[in-house]
Amino acid sequence: MKLIWLEDFLALLHAGTFSRAAAMRNITQPAFSRRIQMLEDWLGAPLIDRGSPGLRLTPLGERYTHEFRALLMQANELRARIQAEQQGVRRVRVAAQHTLTITWLPSLLRRVQRDAPGIELGVDAHDRPESIARFSSGEAQLLLCLEAETPLHATMPRTEYLHLGHERLVAVSAATPGGAPLHRPQAGRPVRLLGYPAPSFMGGVLYKRCLPPLMDRYPVRIVQESGFVAGIKEMVLAGMGMAWLPERLIARELATKTLVRAGRGLPAVDIPVSLYRVARGPGHGAVDEIWALLSARQARDA
């Protein structure tokens, strides 16, 4: 059995179709399909229900998906530890959502650098699904992410997590010379909104938790969308519209009144921020040391 077959299988689950998964893996679809078949042949059981429309797993495929993720994660982590030890480096990789690398990760990096100077933290910044995929595959040993309505640990049972706090989204606008919001809800005028694509994580938060109270009272015109929160921030600063942005991301602009709250009655939304690792016993070196350090800090702050 080759680990690349497990990587292919998990890529297929992530992509949702054989064609997209093959493109992700940078091989032709027939070659990709053969590798999935080789995994099934080695296991002696089918994982994909090829008689159903769309991608559907067999009962065995459903039952053992977590086992496949754990096996691949452990193998990649073992390789990383051996390579780091060979090079005399204690290295840990953390997968993080783009925005959190600006709002939360710097303080975490400073803490590790100060209190565990022998450990080198590498950062992989991606969107939320890709960050989770890299953590699940073992390419990253830690995951820093925003929590959905169903917490990640509910769907990844072989993990441990630390609740670090909340990312608060607030509705803001560029300011007029007099300090009032340039864009705000007004009767009879469409609200110019800078938003996030509905299928994205931030889009889900926007449409489920931020917009309903606004749309109940005012017409809304979405003038631009972007999956990059930092890009939306720049558009707000340019005066293109109002948006819900992480308060930590715009703390300096709020303090200098470059950005101001877009109006009263608009909801502020708190999203939990968590750090994850694979659940395991002692003896895993640098990850254990970081976890103990952060757990102790959390206990002191409680």
UniProtKB/TrEMBL annotation:
GO terms for molecular function: DNA-binding transcription factor activity; transcription cis-regulatory region binding. Transmembrane segments: none annotated. Residues 1-58 form the HTH lysR-type domain. InterPro entries: LysR_HTH_N (IPR000847), LysR_subst-bd (IPR005119), WH-like_DNA-bd_sf (IPR036388), WH_DNA-bd_sf (IPR036390). Keywords: DNA-binding, Transcription, Transcription regulation. The keyword Transcription applies. Coiled coil: none annotated. PROSITE patterns: HTH_LYSR (PS50931). The keyword Cell inner membrane does not apply. Pfam families: HTH_1, LysR_substrate. Belongs to the LysR transcriptional regulatory family. PANTHER family: HTH-TYPE TRANSCRIPTIONAL REGULATOR, HTH-TYPE TRANSCRIPTIONAL REGULATOR YJIE. This is HTH lysR-type domain-containing protein. It comes from Bordetella bronchialis.
